C-alpha cells in the first residue's frame, strides 16, 4: 500500500476530539472552516503550532498521520508561501472520505507550551534552595517551548519548574531533574557545577532534535 505522511498543527480542543475517535479521524469542520488543511512536512506544522496555536491558546500540538497516495492525489500540494510552506486543501464536505483513507492512527508527535510565569520559577527555586540556570528560565519563558514529543526515536518530556521540584527528591541534592525520555532515563542539570551547565547548548540540541546528551 502506497502511503503519504502528512502533518497537522492543532490545539487542545481539536486534539481531544481526535482522541475521542481513538486517534482515527479528524472532527467535522465548523461552519466558518470550509477547508481542512493538512500540511506536507513537520517543519511547517511545528511553525504553525508554535507561532499560532501557542499564542492563541497557550498550547499547540503537531500531529502526523498517513493517507493513501491515490486518494490524496485528488488534492494537489499547494505552496502557500516559502518553499517548505506546503498544504493540501481538502473541502469540508470531503472530510469523511478523507478520514476513511487514513491508514493507522493519528500520532501526536509534539506538544509546545507558552511562557512559564515568573511566580512559578520563583517558587520552584525557593523550594530547591538554588536558582535554576538563567538560560533555562529564558527558554521556558520564550514565546514557546518544547513540552513533549518524539525526537528521533525517543519520546521526551520536559518538566515545568514545579514538576522539577516534585522530581527532585532529597536523594538528588543539587541536581535539577528537568525531564525524562520515557524509559526511566532522566534529563538533568547539575546545579553544583562550576562553570554552570551549558544550557544554551542543551537547548540548541533539543531544538534540533538531538538529545544524545542527557544533561547539560
TrEMBL record:
<dbReference type="InterPro" id="IPR037883">
    <property type="entry name" value="Knr4/Smi1-like_sf"/>
</dbReference>
<protein>
    <submittedName>
        <fullName>Uncharacterized protein</fullName>
    </submittedName>
</protein>
